[in-house]
Amino acid sequence: MTHGDDRSLQAARARAYALAETGRFDNGNAVQQALIAEGWSNAGRALESDYARQAVGERCRAAQAQAH
Question: Domain of life, per the record (predicted)?
Fold first, then answer.
């Protein structure tokens, strides 16, 4: 993996976390679909690790809990 790839994956993850924290998404799959809709072609790679998926899911649940 090159430095550019690493940075683009980090940027996609950061955007995924920001989307998850809005409370508009139920889970990591919904966030991934939103990333793809925004044009993040690397969304799948950015969220392929268990850690990233878990972190996005936890942010989704926390944001929804605060909204209710």
Answer: Bacteria
Encode pLDDT of 12-26 as tens digits: 999 999 999 999 999
For residues 57 and 31, give the distance between their C-alpha atoms in angstroms, rounded to a whole number: 9
User: Which tokens sit at 65?
Assistant: 């809990």
SS3 of residue 56 by DSSP: helix
Alpha carbon distance 35, 55 (integer Å) = 15
Token representation of residue 19: 């989307």
Token readout for 55 is 């972190």
Q: What span, in angstroms and rounded, lies between the C-alpha atoms of 30 and 52? A: 14
pLDDT one-digit tens code per residue, 46-58: 999 999 999 999 9
Alpha-carbon distances, residue 52 vs 15, 27, 68 (angstroms): 12, 12, 25
Q: Kindly report whether the global pTM for this prediction surpasses the value 0.70.
A: yes
